[in-house]
Write a structure and sequence with these properties.
alpha/beta, Rossmann fold, 7-stranded mixed β-sheet, 5-stranded parallel β-sheet
Length: 375
C-alpha cells in the first residue's frame, strides 16, 4: 500500500430552474446558460458542488455595474443519459445561449449530438472522456485534462513504486469504459495489462460481486472509475475482506463527496485532480476562490468540484469578453478560441481554432481520515 511517506516522496446568478419564459440570449436580456446535471440521486453532490462554484463566480460578476447578467438555468438529470438528452432538447428549444457544466460522460455523450446539430456552444463538461474530444467539434470546449492524462499519472506513480498488479473497478457505461481504456493504454506502454476488472451499474452501490472478483486476483492496487457512492462502498467492502492495497480514483469521483462518504476510512485513498488544490493558500486561485466563497455566504463550500465550476464560469465569461461584435454563439466560440495562456492564479488555460482542450493540469492528492486532502 502507498503510505503517506511514499506519496510525499513520489509525487450565475441564482438558479433559474422555475421560470417559465426564458429571455432570448441573443437579445438584450440576461445571457442564459443551460445546465443539465445530477441534483438528486447518488451522484447529486457532483452537480450541486460544480453549480455552487459557478454560481459564486457569476453572482460576484453580475453584481458589478454595467455588466450584462449571466445566469444559469438548471435541470436535474439524475446522472441518467435519457433524462439528460430530454433536458438538453428542452434547453435548446428555449434558446439558451450555451450549454454549460454538464456532469458525466454518459450524460454528456447523450447531449453532444443535439448541441452539435444546433451549433450550440457546449462548454466545460465535467468529464475527461476522449469520446467527447475526438472527433473535434467546433462548438465543444473542455476545461479539464482527459481521463487518459489522469490514468497515465496513476500508472506512472504505481509502477514507479514497483506496484504492477493493477485491477480496475469501473462503472458499466461510457464513463467506465473511458477510464478502463485509459488504464489499459497506460499499462500497455509498460508492457503490462490490468490483472482483473469488474463493474458496477451506474447509480448503484451493489459492489459485492466486483469485490469478490477483484480480490481473487490479489492486486497491488485498484483503480476506481465510478462516482463516489459506489467507490466508497467498494473501498469499505474490500477492506472488510482483508484487502490492504491502494485505491486510486479519477477526479470525477468527487473528492469531497468521497471523503464525506468514507469518513475515517478515507485515509490513504488517492485521487487524481485536474484543478489546483482549493485548500492550499500557496495557490493564488485558491486564495481568490476561498475568499469568494466566504463573501458569497450562499451555502457553497470550497472543494475541488466547486473550484472547477468557478474556473469554468470564469473562463466562459472571458470568452464572452473577447467575443467580437454583437454577442452571438459564433462570437462566443471565437472569443474562447482567442484565449491564449490565460493565467488564473496557478491554472493556465489556452484554446485555439484547432485546440479546444484548455488544460492538461493533473496532480495527485491523498485523502486523510479527518476530512482533509493532501496534494
Amino acid at each position: 500500500m502507498i503510505n503517506r511517506r511514499h506519496f510525499s516522496l513520489a509525487a450565475g446568478a441564482a438558479t433559474l430552474g422555475g421560470f417559465a419564459a426564458v429571455a432570448r440570449a441573443q437579445g438584450d436580456g440576461p445571457i442564459v446558460l443551460g445546465q443539465s446535471a445530477p441534483f438528486t440521486g447518488p451522484a447529486a453532490q457532483l452537480g450541486i458542488q460544480f453549480h455552487q462554484g459557478a454560481k459564486v463566480f457569476l453572482d460576484a460578476y453580475n453584481a458589478q455595474s454595467g455588466r450584462r447578467a449571466v445566469q444559469i438555468k438548471t435541470l436535474d438529470d439524475g446522472y441518467e443519459p435519457e433524462r439528460c438528452a430530454a433536458n438538453t432538447q428542452k434547453l435548446i428549444d428555449e434558446d439558451v445561449f450555451a450549454l454549460f457544466g454538464y456532469i458525466g460522460t454518459p450524460t454528456s455523450l447523450a447531449a453532444l449530438p443535439l448541441a452539435v446539430k444546433d451549433k450550440v456552444p457546449f462548454v466545460a463538461p465535467f468529464t475527461g472522456a476522449m469520446a467527447l474530444r475526438e472527433p473535434f467539434h467546433k462548438n465543444v470546449f473542455h476545461l479539464r485534462a482527459s481521463y487518459n492524462d489522469e490514468t497515465a499519472l496513476m500508472v506512472r506513480q504505481l509502477t514507479h513504486l514497483g506496484l504492477k498488479k493493477i485491477a480496475v473497478f469501473h462503472q458499466n457505461d461510457a464513463y467506465g469504459k473511458a477510464g478502463l481504456d485509459g488504464v489499459t493504454l497506460a499499462l500497455a506502454e509498460q508492457q503490462l495489462k490490468p490483472i482483473a476488472q469488474a463493474t458496477v451499474e451506474r447509480n448503484s452501490a451493489e459492489v459485492a460481486p466486483a469485490v469478490k472478483t477483484l480480490l481473487a486476483a490479489r492486486p497491488d492496487a485498484v483503480v476506481q472509475v465510478g462516482a463516489y457512492k459506489a467507490c466508497a462502498a467498494f473501498i469499505r467492502e474490500a477492506r472488510k475482506a482483508g484487502f490492504g492495497g491502494t485505491f486510486f480514483n479519477l477526479s470525477f469521483v468527487g473528492t469531497q463527496a468521497l471523503s464525506d462518504e468514507l469518513g475515517k476510512e478515507a485515509a490513504g485513498v488517492l485521487v487524481t485532480q485536474v484543478v489546483p488544490s482549493p485548500y492550499s493558500q500557496a495557490n493564488a486561485i485558491a486564495r481568490e476562490f476561498t475568499e469568494a466563497v466566504r463573501k458569497a455566504g450562499n451555502g457553497a463550500s470550497a472543494n475541488f468540484s466547486s473550484l472547477e465550476g468557478y474556473l469554468a464560469a470564469k473562463v466562459l465569461v472571458e470568452g464572452l469578453r473577447k467575443a467580437p461584435g454583437k454577442l452571438s454563439r459564433e462570437g462566443l466560440i471565437t472569443g474562447l478560441e482567442s484565449i491564449d495562456r490565460l493565467q488564473l492564479g496557478g491554472f493556465e488555460v489556452s484554446f485555439s481554432a484547432k485546440n479546444h482542450v484548455g488544460s492538461k493540469f493533473v496532480e495527485l492528492s491523498m485523502l486523510t481520515g479527518d476530512g482533509k486532502v493532501r496534494t
